[in-house]
Structure formats: C-alpha cells, structure tokens
Design a protein that fits this description.
About 75% of the residues lie in helices and about 0% in strands. It is globular, with a radius of gyration of 11 Å. It has about 70 residues and is an all-alpha fold. The protein is built from 4 helices and no strands.
C-alpha cells in the first residue's frame, strides 16, 4: 500500500483526532493503515491490532474506497 507523504500526514492527523475524541475503533483502523503504508505485513498488523487478517483486509478496502473517512 503506497500513498503520498502529504496523505500520510492527513492520516496521522486523523489518527490523532480519533484518539483525542476517544474513537478507538477508528484510531485502531487508521493506525493499521499507517503501519501497512510503513511496510508492515498484513499478518503483523492484524496480530498487533488484535484482529484477523480478514479484518485488516476489510480495513484496507474501506480505506481504498473512502479514504480517511472509510
């Protein structure tokens, strides 16, 4: 998964906002996307996030369709 540095910054900001607002599920999903963008494997991200590989794949699909809002 590859994104521009500018969009990576947007993701980091959205992650910070989600954490501040207590939106734990959204924060976990955004953190996972950032980890994938950073080169982590889907399996690692799933294990670190406490979810299945299938869930991480669904998060990626949501991100690809809806961006940060996905």
């Amino acid at each position: 998964l590859t994104i521009s540095n500018a969009y990576r910054k947007v993701l980091r900001q959205a992650l910070g906002n989600a954490r501040k607002l207590g939106l734990e599920k959204k924060a976990r999903r955004l953190a996972a996307i950032l980890a994938l963008v950073g080169g982590r494997r889907v399996e690692e991200v799933g294990q670190d996030s406490g979810v299945t590989v299938e869930t991480v794949v669904e998060w990626v699909k949501r991100f690809l369709v809806g961006g940060v809002r996905g």
